[in-house]
Write a structure and sequence with these properties.
Radius of gyration: 28 Å
Number of strands: 4
Largest sheet: 2 strands, antiparallel
Number of helices: 23
Shape: globular
Distance between the termini: 10 Å
Structural class: mainly alpha
Order of helices and strands: HHHEEHHHHHHHHHHHHHHHHHHHEEH
Strand content: under 5%
Length: about 575
């Protein structure tokens, strides 16, 4: 009797999470139920589900409290604050990509066609025959064109965005991890909205001002992904990461679809000579989103004013580190030596070459090779990104199901989706290269399937850095995205150099390059991907105190506390 009472009165001194509390409660119930005094044991066992005083304490920051088991059913989901964050982030990335890609479509109707000489005769590629020659005269109208920018100027203008974009990735991630991503992302898009609204005026004033605005736009939007990774690293529980990330970044694809479609229509029917309205609409929409962002979002669950106590406890108890502690110390050396970091970096670079090639050059390919007019161009350029949006959403949902049901480990899940993304995109990119105007419907299908496969990366390298280093999610994405911005700078220029005459044979080389890099990315990521928390990404002081070992491959926290082991060992002898 005394021994049993001692068991019920036992209070561990270590601080662990609610998963550990469940473990000790079940362990004590087993001890009591096996006691010879069955009747007393049953009474004690029935009482133990109502007891919380024996539970290990959960400590967060400077507060310590006994926490009962969290019932998952009681935790809000679809209408919760963490999902509301994902919805608002989705709208934010619609705006980010609207101000990024609007220039790609607008420039098609801003610039007078080089294929139209002064005598009015139409020049077409000799490789184009039949219906392509007949429709070539309708491919382009200079009704709204105002500028005589040659192909080299247009290519460098498209690439100039990335000269700024590459400079703020790492510092944006560091600022977000150190001071919070809410202000970093909010102020960045506020400046981006002003840059977009000023573009028509600056284009009519000086070509140099267009370069300045594009570089500045790249500088401020360069912090968007690192800032969001930093925020999601503090809001997304391990088994909801793919879902939340896929919903938030779904906005990138929807932004592409909406901007390509809307810009083609505005170019013909919009105000301010058509193309000017493209910048006013996207810039104004971005400004309105900034107001919503600052009103609704907080950097972490602890700082949110409207979050419920149940949801806050659920998130904090499942995140693998103390989200309220922000440190300026970054383990640079460990990051450089990490194979997981290099796997993500390689995958990011190779994936972005294909993404940026299509992002900046797809309208030009539609016009030069497939001979679509500007309204068809805008709408059909959007179709592949609609497919990518569906793929990203599907990948995020299904990958977390595979992990939560322990069908695949985190590493195996990331490998499967990312390698599939690379191989599928490479194969169908090459197929697109063999398409001409005569079979342009098949070209649109091949492009759509290729871009669909690129959407699977939302369950691959995009979320992987939060798997193995959620504490440094912002700066890690900044590092990988810095390297992955180089393709954005080089790809438009490379496309211009490879396609001086805009023939289908020349564009075929563009797609060969994409496929080769996709194959290389699949090889490196497949070999070195990781799904476990890296040792340098843990809260070292907490780990040493509690002996916590975290394995995201199975989505649980396994906690090994020496003092509790000794106590349990003694109790088992009762």
């Amino acid at each position: 009797m005394a021994a049993m009472g001692a068991i019920l009165d036992f209070k561990p001194t270590q601080n662990i999470t609610t998963h550990g509390q469940d473990h000790f409660r079940d362990h004590f119930k087993h001890i009591i139920s096996s006691n010879p005094l069955l009747e007393l044991g049953k009474r004690k066992m029935n009482r133990i589900d109502e007891r919380t005083d024996f539970l290990p304490k959960y400590q967060h920051g400077n507060r310590s409290e006994n926490l009962p088991r969290t019932k998952t059913a009681a935790v809000p989901c679809i209408c919760s604050q963490r999902w509301l964050l994902a919805y608002i982030a989705f709208l934010g990335f619609v705006c980010v990509y609207a101000v990024r890609v609007n220039f790609s479509v607008a420039i098609v109707c801003m610039v007078k066609s080089s294929d139209v000489p002064t005598n009015g005769s139409i020049l077409v590629n000799q490789s184009d025959v039949g219906i392509c020659v007949e429709e070539a005269a309708n491919v382009r109208s200079d009704e709204h064109a105002e500028f005589d920018w040659d192909k080299n100027i247009r290519s460098t203008m498209l690439a100039s965005f990335f000269y700024g974009y590459i400079c703020t990735q790492i510092i944006g991630g560091w600022f977000s991890d150190r001071f919070g991503g809410r202000r970093v992302l909010g102020y960045a898009l506020l400046i981006a909205s002003f840059c977009t609204l000023l573009t028509p005026v600056c284009a009519r004033t000086s070509m140099l001002l267009v370069y300045v605005l594009r570089v500045l736009l790249g500088l401020v939007t360069g912090v968007s992904f690192p800032a969001m990774q930093s925020i999601l690293g503090r809001w997304a529980p391990p088994l909801e990461r793919s879902k939340l990330v896929s919903v938030a970044y779904l906005g990138t694809m929807v932004g592409n679809v909406a901007t390509f479609s809307l810009s083609g229509v505005l170019c013909d029917y919009g105000f301010d000579n058509g193309w000017g309205s493209i910048f006013y609409v996207t810039g104004g929409m971005t400004f309105l989103w900034v107001l919503l962002w600052f009103f609704m979002v907080a950097d972490s669950p602890q700082e949110h004013r409207r979050i419920s106590a149940v949801e806050r406890e659920y998130i904090v108890s499942h995140i693998e580190y103390n989200t309220t502690v922000r440190t300026a110390k970054v383990p640079w050396r460990d990051m450089v030596k990490s194979r997981a970091v290099w796997a993500c970096l390689t995958a990011h670079v190779c994936s972005n070459w294909t993404n940026y090639t299509l992002l900046t050059s797809l309208p030009a390919f539609m016009k030069a090779v497939l001979k679509f007019d500007i309204k068809q161009n805008g709408a059909l350029s959007a179709v592949p990104y609609f497919c990518r949006a569906m793929a990203g959403l599907l990948a995020g949902q299904t990958s977390d199901i595979l992990r939560s049901h322990k069908i695949l480990s985190t590493a195996a899940t990331r490998r499967m989706y990312q390698v599939s993304a690379f191989l599928g995109a490479g194969i169908f990119s090459v197929a697109t290269g063999f398409s001409t105007c005569e079979n342009r419907d098949m070209a649109v299908i091949f492009l759509s399937v290729a871009v669909f496969f690129t959407g699977l990366c939302r369950a691959g390298y995009v979320v992987n850095s939060i798997d193995f280093a959620p504490k440094f999610g912002g700066i890690l994405y900044g590092i990988t995205n810095t390297a992955a911005t180089v393709p954005g700078m080089i790809a438009p220029i490379a496309v211009g150099a490879l396609t001086p005459n805009d023939t289908s044979e020349e564009w075929r080389m563009v797609f060969y390059v994409c496929a080769a890099l996709d194959l290389f990315g699949a090889l490196i990521f497949g070999l070195f991907v990781s799904g476990e928390i890296e040792s340098w990404a843990r809260d070292q002081n907490v780990d040493q105190q509690n002996g916590i070992v975290i394995d995201t491959n199975v989505g649980v926290e396994t906690q090994k506390t020496d003092n509790i082991k000794r106590n349990v060992g003694n109790n088992e002898g009762v």
